[in-house]
């Protein structure tokens, strides 16, 4: 192992006495010495133990390998200064060693001073050569890195005004990748300032770099260059007093894709603006094209969902795709004309009106794999299609396709609901007509059996049917089949009952009914109940020569529908028990109320009064 404090020297000498004297001299001068007596041993030792700072090599090593041959092998394998130590002074011998090494040739018996001085000079020469070599390697590595790095690299120098304010910066050196991503040519810009090369350069670039030089700190930022028309992500760090270096990459594509994704996300939360119109405007501004059109395709026609032209939204139109670039979009999924698109489609009036020069369109593919729409970029100047155009269109096509499919499904559902509603109306209309016919037949039959028990049975049946008929009339009239206002229904029902020709007494009605929307099933039951309560009043309570009144209230009280009915006729007998009543009417009311989880009871007093309470949870819409 190499000593940390002493230089380690390998002495190759076949003469033992000379070797002993040499080792003594070197040791006294603070060198660590290892001796071998042949070239073969020297090679073997230094290969196995390479921690030597120098080799002192005798030329004539007796039997075996010559010193010059051993030196060549050692120097081929190891980076170590090698000095020849020999008694030969012949010019040809010395010249031979010069071709092998340049670290010196020491003649034996030159004395200790010459030996030590020569060794020290060899060490200095070796260190100098090594540093120069390292510097060259470093410079080579820097140039290799500078030339081959896949980021733009530039060295600049700030330019100050007389007040010491940074007002510009100069191009000192740029690498090839700088030229590639900026489009600037090194030989045309080196030595010039950025404002000379790009007069529209934003002030924030100079401000950023001035901050780097002033603070001596490294800064990382992303900004847009109007002069180059691109976004760059920049790492800037100081160099010297006024200089700075930048390493940067073109992030335009990433920025555009990111902005596009942000637009898609934001439109999810903006219900106020039409998605297609917002997208058309976004794409027009993003790519700077004259016109963006988004359309839905079906059966050879495109119906535009949005058309943004010259900064404004235009009316929706419908047109056939035949003999238009849109036909190519639908058939091939993409269509691109860098220029002269009108010459390819001279019969396309829309392109002619726009004054189109270029066209780029992609199709929108449904989940089933068929085209359902398209997005087109149309411009009045040539459009150079880059990968970013297609990438952005692919990103927005996913959401656009979803929106078209959603609108199509909504339209289908709407049409289906309209069809179902028409069919339902027709069914209700026929049912209402059938009930009217049945009601009329029952009343005719009742007239035929006047004065008999059959008359009463037929009239009761007609009354039950009448409440159902009135419910269907209201549902049909108010164009609703899932709910109906209780107040409207009760007023209409009581009016029709009191106007029926089987009512022989005059009855005054009094209402206090809340506007409560209930489902038809409940209203049907309530119709039968109210019908039965009024019929019982007429049969058992009212007298022909008296003034007859009924009071009906229906209120929403503590999540319950509370209905109260009373009349001005005879009161119920004192021993009347609703729970044991044998009458069909009372049993029917009790059954209907129970069906809706309600309660039915009567109040004692001077008048006949009934109360019905039904929970609203399951019957209110």
Categorize the overall geometry: elongated
Biggest pleated sheet: 7 strands, antiparallel
Report how far the terminal alpha carbons are from each other.
96 Å
Query: Total number of helical segments?
Result: 19
Quote the beta fraction: 15-25%
**Radius of gyration over C-alpha positions, nearest whole angstrom:** 53 Å
Helix content: 40-55%
Q: What is the SS-derived class?
A: alpha+beta
Characterise this structure.
This protein is α+β, with helices and mostly antiparallel strands and 621 residues long. The chain is built from 19 helices and 24 strands. Strands 11, 12, 13, 14, 15, 16 and 17 form a seven-stranded antiparallel beta sheet that branches. A five-stranded parallel beta sheet has the order 2-1-3-4-5, with helices on both faces. α16 packs antiparallel against α17 (486-499). It starts with 6 loop residues before the first strand and ends in a 6-residue tail after the last strand.
């Amino acid at each position: 192992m190499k000593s940390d404090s002493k230089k380690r020297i390998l002495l190759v000498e076949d003469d033992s006495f000379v070797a002993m004297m040499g080792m003594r001299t070197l040791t006294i001068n603070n060198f660590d010495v290892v001796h071998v007596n042949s070239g073969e041993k020297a090679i073997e030792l230094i290969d196995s133990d390479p921690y030597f700072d120098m080799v002192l090599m005798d030329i004539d090593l007796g039997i075996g390998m010559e010193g010059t041959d051993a030196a060549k092998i050692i120097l081929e394998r190891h980076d170590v200064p090698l000095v020849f130590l020999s008694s030969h002074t012949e010019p040809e011998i010395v010249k031979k060693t010069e071709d092998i090494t340049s670290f010196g040739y020491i003649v034996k018996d030159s004395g200790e001073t010459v030996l030590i001085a020569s060794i020290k000079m060899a060490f200095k020469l070796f260190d100098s050569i090594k540093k120069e070599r390292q510097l060259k390697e470093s410079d080579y590595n820097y140039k290799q890195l500078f030339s081959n790095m896949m980021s733009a690299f530039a060295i600049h120098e700030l330019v100050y005004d007389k007040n010491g304010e940074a007002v510009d910066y100069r191009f000192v050196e740029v690498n090839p990748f700088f030229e590639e991503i900026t489009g600037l040519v090194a030989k045309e810009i080196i030595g010039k300032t950025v404002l000379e090369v790009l007069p529209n350069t934003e002030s924030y670039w100079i401000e950023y770099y001035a901050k780097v030089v002033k603070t001596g700190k490294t800064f990382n930022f992303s900004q847009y260059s109007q002069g180059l028309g691109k976004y760059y992500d920049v790492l800037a760090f100081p160099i010297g007093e006024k200089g700075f270096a930048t390493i940067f990459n073109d992030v335009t594509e990433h920025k555009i894709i990111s902005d596009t994704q942000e637009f898609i996300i934001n439109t999810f939360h903006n219900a106020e603006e039409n998605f297609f119109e917002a997208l058309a405007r976004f794409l027009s501004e993003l790519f700077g094209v004259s016109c963006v059109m988004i359309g839905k395709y079906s059966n050879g026609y495109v119906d535009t969902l949005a058309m943004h032209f010259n900064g404004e939204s235009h009316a929706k139109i419908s047109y056939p795709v035949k003999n238009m670039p849109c036909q190519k979009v639908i058939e091939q999924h993409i269509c691109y004309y860098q220029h002269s698109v009108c010459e390819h489609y001279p019969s396309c009036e829309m392109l002619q009106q726009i004054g189109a020069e270029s066209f780029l369109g992609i199709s929108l593919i449904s989940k089933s794999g068929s085209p359902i729409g398209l997005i087109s970029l149309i411009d009045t100047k040539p459009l150079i299609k880059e990968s970013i155009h297609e990438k952005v269109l692919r990103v927005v096509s996913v959401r656009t396709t979803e929106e078209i499919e959603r609108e199509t499904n909504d339209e289908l559902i709407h049409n289906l609901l309209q069809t179902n509603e028409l069919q339902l109306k027709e069914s209700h209309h026929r049912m209402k007509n059938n009930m009217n016919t049945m009601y009329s037949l029952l009343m005719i039959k009742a007239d035929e059996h006047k004065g008999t028990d059959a008359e009463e049975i037929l009239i009761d049946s007609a009354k039950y049917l009448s409440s159902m008929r009135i419910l269907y009339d209201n549902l049909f009239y108010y164009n609703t089949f899932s709910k109906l206002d209780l107040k409207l229904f009760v007023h209409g029902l009581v009016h029709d009952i009191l106007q029926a020709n089987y009512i022989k007494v005059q009855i005054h009605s009094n209402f206090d009914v809340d506007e409560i929307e209930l489902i038809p099933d409940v209203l049907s039951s309530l119709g039968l109940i109210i019908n039965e309560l009024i019929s019982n009043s007429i049969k058992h309570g009212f007298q022909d020569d008296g003034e007859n009144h009924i009071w009906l209230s229906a209120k929403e009280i503590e999540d319950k529908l509370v209905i109260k009915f009373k009349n001005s006729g005879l009161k119920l007998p004192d021993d009347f028990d609703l729970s044991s009543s044998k009458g069909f009417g009372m049993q029917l009311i009790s059954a209907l109320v129970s069906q809706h989880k309600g309660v039915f009871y009567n109040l004692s007093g001077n008048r006949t009064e009934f109360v019905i309470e039904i929970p609203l949870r399951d019957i209110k819409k």
